[in-house]
Write a structure and sequence with these properties.
Blueprint (H helix, E strand, L loop, with lengths): L1 H43 L9 E4 L5 E4 L5 E12 L4 E12 L5 E4 L2 E2 L2 E2 L1 E4 L4 E3 L7 E4 L6 E4 L3 E5 L4 E10 L2 E10 L1 E3 L5
Parallel strand pairs: 3-15
Antiparallel strand pairs: 1-2, 2-14, 3-4, 4-11, 4-12, 5-10, 5-13, 6-7, 8-9, 8-13, 13-14
Length: 192
């Protein structure tokens, strides 16, 4: 009986060794493949933005994390709310965008690539734009700050402030999800 067990263990060891060797060969090939992908990403890193970007806290306390800061700067001018009922309204962000690349237009909003455009209040309510899957194009000129009123977020509670706003942005070859925090809402302002 001991011989049978010993022979069985030896056979099992012989069968397991070639599989281990095959796995090592596979891992070497996989490692080489990943290295070549990383080299390609490093080369593309100058054109495409990375998940991190320029973080700025504005004088009004609004925080902006801009992963496309090499292509364009973004400043929150204000958030304007227009009442649709006693407790709810539609809120549009007004941004000042300064493009640093030779492009004629940028895309803001929608859901594509790295994320989707949406807003959250402190209570965890989620607000979507009028057409959540479509981005809007805005005409811009390199080096000239342009004031942009974004497509509004719908049915925002009038007691809320926008704790976090995520806006998908594309400028030339750069794209990413701009994160804006602590945005107060100006409700029903007098026409300017």
């Amino acid at each position: 009986m001991k011989k049978v067990i010993l022979i069985g263990l030896m056979a099992l060891g012989i069968i397991a060794v070639p599989r281990n060797v095959c796995a090592q060969g596979f891992l070497k090939k996989l490692t080489k493949g990943l290295e070549s992908v990383n080299k390609g990403l490093d080369k593309a890193g100058d054109k495409a933005s990375v998940a991190t970007g320029q973080a700025v806290t504005q004088e009004n306390g609004v925080f902006v994390m801009n992963p496309v800061s090499k292509a364009m700067s973004v400043e929150v001018v204000k958030a304007v709310g227009h009442s649709i009922s006693e407790n709810f309204g539609d809120v549009a962000l007004v941004l000042r965008v300064n493009v640093k690349e030779p492009v004629n237009s940028i895309a803001l909003g929608g859901s594509w690539g790295q994320g989707k455009t949406q807003a959250f209040d402190a209570d965890g309510n989620v607000y979507k734009m009028n057409m959540p899957s479509v981005s809007d194009r805005y005409d811009v000129t390199e080096g000239l700050p342009v004031k942009i009123t974004c497509n509004p977020f719908l049915k925002v509670r009038k007691t809320a402030s926008l704790a976090i706003v995520k806006i998908v942005a594309k400028c030339g070859d750069a794209s990413g999800e701009i994160t804006i925090k602590n945005v107060p809402i100006e409700w029903d302002p007098a026409e300017e």
